[in-house]
Specification:
Layout: H1 8-13, E1 20-24, E2 33-37, E3 40-42, E4 47-53, H2 57-62, E5 67-75, E6 78-89, H3 92-105, E7 115-127
Antiparallel strand pairs: 1-2, 1-5, 3-4, 4-7, 5-6, 6-7
Length: 129
Amino acid sequence: MNLAEQGDAFAAFWQERHLCTLATARPDGRPPHVVPVGATLDLAAGIARVITSGTSYKARLIGPAGAPVALCQVDGRRWSTLEGLAVVRTEPEQVAEAERRYAARYKPPRVNPSRVVVEIQVTRVLGNV
């Protein structure tokens, strides 16, 4: 998906400092697991990234096979949801790239030797920005 086609307001919104929520499906059919996260968006690649610990519940729900997720960001009446297939990346270069992007949007992340990256290939965009 070419996220640059979403326009300048969309791109600017995903560069502003906002917390997001990440929703993942639970295997037992209970309501989705929804947690606050910091996220970054690579418009050119169509990929959103979330850094987390490899032992986190969200990373375990996504698992090695990947899973559909929804990433949402809200600021007053402005909102955007990105849907797509998430995978957990453990490669040091992928983790370093995600940390660099996170630091540019938020602040340098704390040291976490078990850090992984939830990488979401965006397939659908909802919202009003």
